[in-house]
Design a protein that fits this description.
Length: about 475
């Protein structure tokens, strides 16, 4: 398997630091609003990367942070006359609703920045002790001149960056490119106590501290949108490698920009859409197929016409899946001596995905397979083994990795089952918020009703027992 590494600017053989374990950090949302459809591309494509690695047998630890302290959150809180905590908690809850609808598997851990203040302060103290960070009246900055490899991810040169007119002028900084590690508290803003006085962390130090705490000082993959390469990810490298004196991340994966009708998405142009808004018009499966039909690194144009074409593609795959299920239900005697070898399809699918996660080629394999299945069923030249083999292939690939199958049987659970799933989600939300009293109460009350929850790394399932 080869992955294009933004750090080395080339495809590299994927060799985890500690196989079969793979550790991934994905930059999550700043929770001051509903996330937009461009963010959804990064969330869905990172979900596909994760699920493919799990399909290949890796034990994946996947971390996606939640930035719950930020200038934008404070601004929103002031506008709505709420506390920053109220704003962030509301949008965290809404974020989970939306990623669940998009079939994005929840991370192994969704750390909140506000829960890792000690780790951030400790990392800043370490940088200060090494003479790489400096304090100016309660504002602590990172001195980029002290990190010789600054710019190695983005390919930018310090000299060129300093000459750029867009660099914000700040009299407190030693150099124009120096960035904030700790910000002195302003009147009315949330703050934490620190060796430099009351304040809050800079954005970049949050991800460095959380990733190193949860995944170790060196880990396998860091992913995020292309717009995060500079300065966010560049600054993460500078902080982490200067503090820990070891390589930070082995492979950097970045997802391309999303344009709307050939224009960059922006609120000022009026073409800014949240994922929630798009989901009102199009299915989850169509959105996921639309993203998967393009290479993750390249730019992608989003339009109604293209997403409607994806809807038709989902319909074709789903109809094939339904046809397989219908034939399985007939419970017939073996009609054919067909001994079908599915290995070719698995090989073709894996060869595509192993080539820098070429989802477009892998999706083409799924459509070719769908045509083959329909031909064999139409010719009445099949048996139970073929049907179960075809179903298994689509379960593992089209649905298990890509999330593309939309079937009547899958989308119509009983009201009882829907209510149980709702309680399971509420329990997970409670656990994420460390409200263990509530999560335990939900589990115990369900048990009293004869519903036993079973927790695993993949999530919670349940079984019904007679009382």
């Amino acid at each position: 398997m080869k992955i294009y590494n933004t750090l080395t600017k080339q495809k590299e053989e994927f060799v985890p630091l500690n196989p079969p374990n793979v550790k991934i950090y994905m930059c999550g949302p700043t929770v001051y609003d509903y996330f937009h459809i461009g963010n959804a591309r990064s969330f869905i494509m990172s979900d596909i990367v994760r699920k493919y690695l799990e399909y290949k047998g890796y034990n994946v630890t996947f971390i996606m942070n939640l930035t719950d302290v930020d200038d934008k959150i404070i601004k929103k809180a002031n506008e709505e006359n709420k506390s920053a905590k109220e704003v962030s908690e509301f949008y965290i809850s809404e974020f989970f609703k939306d990623i669940d609808k998009l079939k994005v598997k929840r991370a192994s851990n969704h750390p909140k920045a506000t829960e890792y203040m000690n780790e951030m302060i400790d990392m800043i103290k370490k940088l200060e002790a090494k003479g790489i960070a400096y304090n100016v009246d309660g504002n602590v900055f990172y001195d980029v001149s002290k990190f010789q490899e600054y710019g190695k991810l983005s390919g930018k040169r310090i000299e060129d960056l300093e000459a750029g007119a867009r660099v914000e002028v700040n009299e407190e900084k030693k150099h124009p490119l120096d960035f904030a590690l700790w910000k002195k508290a302003k009147e009315g803003e949330p703050y934490w106590e620190s060796p430099w006085g009351k304040g809050r962390p800079g954005w970049h130090i949050e991800c460095s501290a959380m990733s190193c705490k949860l995944l170790g000082e060196s880990f396998d993959i860091h992913a995020g949108g292309h717009d995060l390469i500079f300065p966010h990810h560049e600054n993460e490298i500078a902080q982490s490698e200067a503090a820990n004196e070891k390589p930070f991340v082995k492979y950097w994966i970045h997802f391309g920009f999303l344009n709307i009708n050939e224009e960059k998405m922006s609120k000022s142009l009026g073409n800014f859409f949240t994922a929630r808004e798009i989901l009102k018009s199009f299915s989850t499966e169509a959105i996921r197929l639309f993203f998967a039909q393009a290479h993750y690194r390249g730019p992608l144009n989003f339009s109604d016409e293209l997403i409607r074409a994806a809807e038709k593609g989902v319909e074709k795959l789903s109809n094939t899946y339904e046809r397989i299920l219908e034939e399985i239900k007939k419970n017939f005697e073996t009609k054919s001596e067909l001994n079908y070898d599915f290995r070719k399809w698995y090989d073709d699918f894996e060869n595509a995905m192993d080539d820098d996660l070429n989802t477009a080629s892998a999706v083409a394999v799924l459509f070719d397979f769908s045509r083959e299945v329909n031909r064999i069923i139409s010719e009445n030249n099949f048996n139970k083994d073929f049907l179960f083999g075809a179903k298994d292939f689509l379960d593992k690939t089209a649905e298990g990795i890509f999330g593309l199958i939309s079937t009547q049987s899958q989308s119509s659970p009983s009201l009882e089952d829907e209510l149980i799933q709702l309680l399971i989600k509420l329990r997970l939300d409670a656990k994420l918020e460390k409200n263990y009293t509530l999560s335990d109460k939900i589990r115990d009350e369900l048990k009293n009703l004869g519903i036993i929850l079973q927790d695993s790394k993949e999530g919670s399932t349940y079984k019904k027992v007679k009382k």
